[in-house]
Amino acid sequence: MPNYHFWVFLSFFISLLFVSVARFSHPLLKHNVVIEDAKGYYAYLPGLFIYNDLNFKFNKAIELDKHTKTKFTDYRYKLDQDRIYTKYYAGTAIAYSPFFIAAHGISLVCGWDSDGYSAWYHGAVVIASLFYLLVAMLFMGKILDYFRIKNWVKITVVISSYFGTNWFYYATWESGMSHTYSAAIIAAFLYFFIQFKARGVWKTAFVLGFLLGFITLIRPSNLFVVAFLPLFFSSWPNFVLFLKNTLSDPKKLGAGLVAFLAVISIQFIFYKIQLGQWFIYAYVSEGFHFSKPHIIDFLFSIRKGFFVYTPLYILSVLGVVWWYRQNAFQAFWWCAVMFLHVYILSSWHMWWYGGTLGTRVMIEYYIFWMLPLAFFLQSLKLKYRLIVAPFFLFFVLNGVLQQHQYRLGIIHWDSMHWQLYKDVFLFPIIP
After folding, report:
1. Beta-carbon neighbour count of residue 354 at 10 Å?
2. DSSP code per residue over 212-252
């Protein structure tokens, strides 16, 4: 079997071929990458680099009136007539930025429309998403190496998790959404945490602080990733000892904090420019209702249930049993923290998260679902692998099919229910 990197780059080129055929060559779709939430993320870049306007007053003239092929989104919120902002955080725009700058520079040199919203800029966001896909996969492989996962298992788990879940959809089709970028930076953060755990140098602490700040700037809820860090220790006392040693070293602690605060301060600077104040709760009336979580709906509902639209990770739950046999602490911690994570996500006022394929907010945490899945496959004897293989393959192929159905509108973007799901189950076209 070819090495892991071969499969990673093959996945990248398959994805690039898919978007080239299905999106870049389409006269309408190539103009509709940066839409919906992605417009709110992206707006910082033309606002900063082209229009010198972080109140986004170009929204109507450029986005609505000029680019009629692109679905219009008004992502602006008003404190008053002059103080206008977007509720979306700046981290995803920063992730796009090298690709945006390249697209803008090429447009200027070639004399093309350089207003920030032509098809070339939409294409740059797709390329950005695929780049971060590559980063995510490479670091995920290193994380699985840390847990001594065999090469064939690592390839099977990561590649299946990509193509057989909504990760592929959000990397290639809704490339402007934040999840692929979060997944990559979280994977990088975890890898450098492993390096810091092994060597404990202040420079690595600085990198960790930077990456944690970047994760938070993309989605503040991503800060929850620190709750998973004890998984990288064989026992609770070992984690506590590491924590004491780190917190008692002012050089390491200071380096991490300085980097973290420097990155997240970018958002506060934007607020100051936009609104004349350092902070605002940008999501206004949206928030968490922790007394009314929708855990069962979040996991099992036909509308958006995680295990309905990402069935591959049903096997991850089984894998926790095998993980427990190898290290009870890590398996127990995974269960406790993952339950807390689901509880928090399912407490959002809109637990289904609007128009999504499945539970998109889990994509950035797929590395933690890959771990028990890898332990499960690696621990099975050959005869049991032969029994599991058809289920594994079915879950992956069904995941691929559901992405196809969602793109065609067969799976409703918001309001799936049992009767409709039953009618379209395993049908590649509307029956």
Report:
1. 11
2. HHHHHHH-GGGGGGGGGGGGGSSSHHHHHHHHHHHHT-HHH
Residue type, 230: P
- Give the dihedral of Cα atoms 228, 135, 361, 26; nearest 10 deg: -170
| One-character DSSP codes across 175-208 | TTSSHHHHHHHHHHHHHHHHHHHHH--HHHHHHH
* Strand 76-78 relative to strand 84-86, pairing: antiparallel
pLDDT of res. 429: 66
The SS3 call for residue 402 is: helix
Helix, strand, or coil here: 139?
A: helix
pLDDT at 82: 78
- What tens digit of pLDDT does each residue of 42-97 get? 999 999 999 999 999 999 999 999 999 999 989 988 888 778 889 999 999 999 99
Q: How distant, in Å, are the alpha carbons of 29, 30, 104, 167 from that of 124? A: 14, 11, 9, 19
Q: Check residue 78 and give its pLDDT.
A: 84
Angstrom distance (rounded) from CA 48 to CA 43? 8
Under-50 pLDDT residues of the chain: 431
- What distance in Å separates the CA atoms of residue 267 and residue 75, rounded to the nearest whole number? 17
